[in-house]
Amino acid sequence: MSFCFNFDISAQTNLPAEVSGDNSKSEEKEGDQKYAEVEDKSSAGPVKEAKEHLPPLDPQFLLTDAVFETVTIGTLPPLHFLNETVFERTASEREDVEKILSCREEKNSDLISGVYEGGLKVWECTYDILELIEKEGETFRGKAVLDLGCGAGLLGILALKRGARMVLFQDYNSTVIEQLTVPNVFLNCQEDDEVESDGEKKGKGKGKKQEEDGCAEKGKDDSNANSPPPKKRVTDLSKHSLLEKCHFYSGDWRTFLPLVLKRKPQPKFDIIFTSETIYNTCYYPALHETLHQLLAPGGLVYLATKSHYFGVGGGLHLFETFVEQRGVFSLNHLWDGAEGLQRHVVVLQFKKPKDL
């Protein structure tokens, strides 16, 4: 299996040179110097103002004739999300103040630095976290959860369906939140038996049936491969109990953090999910500060990533070095994939006094 990215990084500067998994000590020192440069210049880039998005009072229009897919892994509840291909084909019909839908199509790119940060795709590392959760048996009951860089929001939706008391979804782009994340949350607020009654009851198996352009489809029954995706019927979701536990934000992490800290009481999250967000080293300072300020004492950050993001420059080794330099978190590997472009799931938690 091969996997590649289609990134437009013409607007991005200060990217470190590509590194292999066998860096020497001298290369690590060079990396340290690059981080100093990133720290000095990271604030010079464009800053997208953060804002909170309130679910519409009449959400039905978001799901009218919506075409969706379902992923089911082991014992996890089914997770439903809008079909990406249909979403792209109907881009001209969607509200998009940021113009990222047309810009993405024009540039044929999965990342346009400072404009669009990849939130319209369900990247494969998301599924790595889902499989880990299924293996570990986490229920999230009574916990506050942050889905940072949420995109389609599958990780936060799983926490919601498994008993989280509050879930905050954040993505860089407001279009992603309004046109993808919020509709996906509405979609999953439907009872599973109601969803399946439309004839879309798909395979319940675990594992990946197809991967294409970085978007994995799991738990699909090959016998239904040629069947059209199901359309969603709409019910009144405006007062749904799960929806009342959700908050939605968009914007740069540098503006998102001070905005969310204005909430009363200030939120602290027991679990923070972040998947495929360390591809660019220029974002490390803002990401680290966000995790530092929002993680509850004793909380856990689950981070899924690839070893290296070719053409962009970031990756796990560089982020591990950055975290070690800051001395705030300990970082431990939970899962390391051995095939293809190596993928990983790691956990961050505050260092204990004896570790400082």
Order of helices and strands: EHEHEEHHEHEHEHHEEEHEHEHEE
The proportion of residues in beta strands is 15-25%
How many helical elements? Answer: 11
Let me know the average pLDDT: 78
Alpha carbon gyration radius = 20 Å
- Please list the strands of the largest sheet in the order they lie side by side: 2-10-7-6-11-12-14-13
What class, by secondary structure content?
alpha/beta
- Biggest sheet, open or closed, and with what strands and sense? 8 strands, mixed
Return residue spans where pLDDT drops below 50 for at least 5 consecutive residues.
Answer: 1-44, 195-227
How far apart are the first and last residues' alpha carbons, in Å? 41 Å
Mass-distribution shape: globular
Number of strand segments: 14
The portion of residues assigned to helices is 25-40%
What are the SSEs and their pairings?
Elements: E1 7-8, H1 25-41, E2 51-53, H2 60-63, E3 68-71, E4 79-82, H3 84-89, H4 100-107, E5 111-112, H5 124-136, E6 144-148, H6 154-161, E7 166-171, H7 174-189, H8 192-200, E8 208-212, E9 215-218, E10 246-250, H9 253-260, E11 269-275, H10 284-294, E12 295-306, H11 316-326, E13 329-336, E14 343-350
Parallel strand pairs: 1-5, 6-7, 6-11, 7-10, 11-12
Antiparallel strand pairs: 2-10, 3-4, 8-9, 12-14, 13-14
Keywords:
356 residues; alpha/beta; eight-stranded mixed sheet; 31% helix; globular
